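Worked problem 6 (solution included).
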Amino acid sequence: MLQIIFCCFILLFPEKSIGQELASLRGIISSEDGELLSGVTVQIKNSNLITQTNRNGEYSFTKVSVNAIILFSRLGYKDLSIEIDLIPNQENIRNISLITDIQSLDEIHITEKFSSSNSIIIDPAKFRVFPQTTGSIESFLKNIPGVSGNNELSSQYSVRGGNFDENLVYLNDVEIFRPMLIRKGQQEGLGFINPDLASSVHFSAGGFEARYGDKLSSVLDVRYSKPDTFSVDVQAGFLANSVSFKLPLKSSYILAGIRNKRNQSYLSRQYIDGNYHSDFSDYQILYKQNITSKFSLTFFTDYNRGELKINPEKRITEFGTSDDVLRLFVNYSGDESSKYKSLTSAMTFGYNFSKSLNLKWISSYSGSSEYENSDLLGWYSFNEKDGGLDPMYTGSLLGRGSNHNYADNFLKTKIYSSELRMYKQLRNSFIETGLRFQSDKVKDILDEFTSFDTTSYSFPASGNWMYSGQIRQDNIVEIQRLTGFVQNTFNIIPNLTMAAGIRFNYNNYSKENLISPRVSIIYYPSVKDEFLFRFSAGSYIQAPFYRELKNYNGILNADARSQRSYQFIAGTDYKFNGLGARLKFSSEIYYKLLSRITPYKIEDLKVRYLSDKYAEGYAAGADFSLSGNFASDLESTFRLSLMKTEEDIKNDFYYTKNPSGSQEIVYPGKLKRPSDQLFNVGMMFQDKLPDNPTYKVHLNLIYSSSLPVGPPGPDRHTDVFKIPAYKRVDIGFSKDLVAPESKKASVFLKKHFSMLSLHAELFNLLNFKNTGSYLWLNDKKNNQYAVPNYLTFRKFNFRVIAKIKSR
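Solution. The predicted structure is:
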């Protein structure tokens, strides 16, 4: 209650701490085409007054000398310096128009700027040049401190001890939902964010503001905005192809993009020999029209589809220790397939009542149909590997048998939402409010089982078959949700900015009234911008979505409740000169008190909740990064993350036998969470040849420590095994054919292309055998073995990136 009263006091009386002003100044900054510019740095020369424009291009000062010089700067625009004369003790208005810096726009930049919130801003241009396997911005986040992901085929990521379902994704204020039946990374298609259309990417690994929604871990906020010039971007390669165009008009603009990925050649570089067929595509269009000077309309739609079919033939897998190597042989009959179709559409109406008051109404629909089919029979044997010269020679037989995987699942979701937002700029504060209604409709038909015969090679109609994982369930769920927030961002003193807000959340399934106060503080000690300190604290609630309602066997829990955590985060950024470059060192420590969470198991990429149980726990850690331009215009980053997370499942116990043979009860207490990863190290390095800077190298390195894992089943205390550390090195070499510094560039190419580069890439350069999951088998003595399912091996890729000049 004290937190709520404190936040309400700040929201209602933000200006009590501001001293008497000499003169006040406010205004709106736009481009020469009339686009409102956010993130413009506005500084009063020879003073410690500095601020940034909000998303509506607005800036303000309350204490400015009547004679001052103001500096305006933003990436992609020419710096501007103007001298002004202000009227004392009155409000002065100065609207500014910045001129596009064409030379800056044509270069590839990566910047990570200070923000007024606990988030970083990443230039999406960096994504294009580094080696990539998924073609999604989401997978690129795995190179950010606090984020981890141990599957190069997947764009799903874990943030500071959370699971894949705890991350918010927004596109132009529209929440994005992803398919839910995906079990393996190879089933994933293209991420929902088209990197060629993105103009800005904001990411917060925790401690995010109240204006964002109700999830426990992170926010990815992506914006598509008005382009400066007409452009056509094309990318073609062995794995993926894309084309996008951007068309600015006088009072409107159009963005459109098409992407396609057929990566069966890459999928075949796995542990199972067979025939792979994959086809993933994505179609997006955004249209914005300024109907009047005050009224605007934005329409966005995205159609995303994917299909994967596998006809496996055989697998040979070696596993065990160096002293005791085992070999598994499997022959397969049958196939497995998965496909999905997803449609997201949104309509946004904007109305500017005045220069300081804006209203936005966002209505959206997100629907998907997902199919999962498997009828796969395997005959297996595993032996001790003999140390003889013949690699196919084996020692004694440990076990043989048959296993059958069957699934015929269908999931259909429909999510409607409508939200009204208001933005109000006051003299020295910016207030945002929002009210949102959402309706979820989910139909889920589950029919799956796993069966095995550990005694012989047999068919399901014969032998000693045992069944496990049997699920036959028809679920229909309808949930209505009402959420809202109010937030105020203001300067306590010129170099100290605070964002304080509060959210509420109600849904008719759990019938909980939930309140979440949040506050963040950003402090710049000096105008030199060398130091930045930030602190965030707040309550974060995740109301149950459909997956959190199901227990391990697919049965809905009528008593499911929301998950809740309290987060405390402190960090600092320091910029300095060293190693011949301008460097930035960032550090952040955090503690997340998980007061109520739903336990879960992870089977490959599928999160299976134990909704009939609840737990308490924590996640604590620290993130460090060092970045800088060791080569001009090429930024490199080194990062280290340390983390520990545990949970205590309430009223959890199991039976075991003591040495005397009698049965006794065991209370497991605190358990490692499935995302418990002690450390994560990463490096993104870029360089160019000194004598010929058109040749560049792009290196991506990841080392993530082991993760806890256990056999299938709802018992969390059995997760005492480990998935080995994930090790991966990807390297790419590029040649820029139209770079300004190129002395031998073709006149024809420079005339028709503003960018044209060739990229040769090697994925998994050192050919590490990374484990994605395990196949659990029993021998003839009923001893259980965990057979690793390896991820992809070394693979070469080639692609071309082109940006065609407008005529």
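Discussion: The CA atoms of residues 359 and 422 lie 5 Å apart.
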